[in-house]
Design goal:
The structure is a single chain. The chain is an alpha+beta fold. It has one domain. About 30% of the residues lie in helices and about 10% in strands. It has helices at about 15-25, 40-50; strands at about 35, 60. It is elongated, with a radius of gyration of 13 Å.
Length: about 60
């Protein structure tokens, strides 16, 4: 069985809920700016963020 695309095998053990919590902490109060400076997300974290509906009004991304 191939586990190469598994989050854990890729070193991304953070759950979606944990990623969402981190994103909410770094989202501005108005919801238009997300500052990801020094946040380590990797590929799977970035894909999780892309699926988050509450980020639809996002207009600025800082990293």
């Amino acid at each position: 069985m191939d586990y190469s695309n598994n989050k854990i095998s890729m070193g991304q053990e953070r759950l979606l809920a944990e990623t969402e919590s981190i994103i909410r902490m770094h989202l501005s109060k108005d919801g238009f700016t997300l500052d990801l400076t020094a946040i380590y997300l990797k590929e799977y974290g970035a894909k999780d963020i892309a699926r988050m509906e509450f980020l639809r009004p996002l207009t600025n991304l800082a990293f």
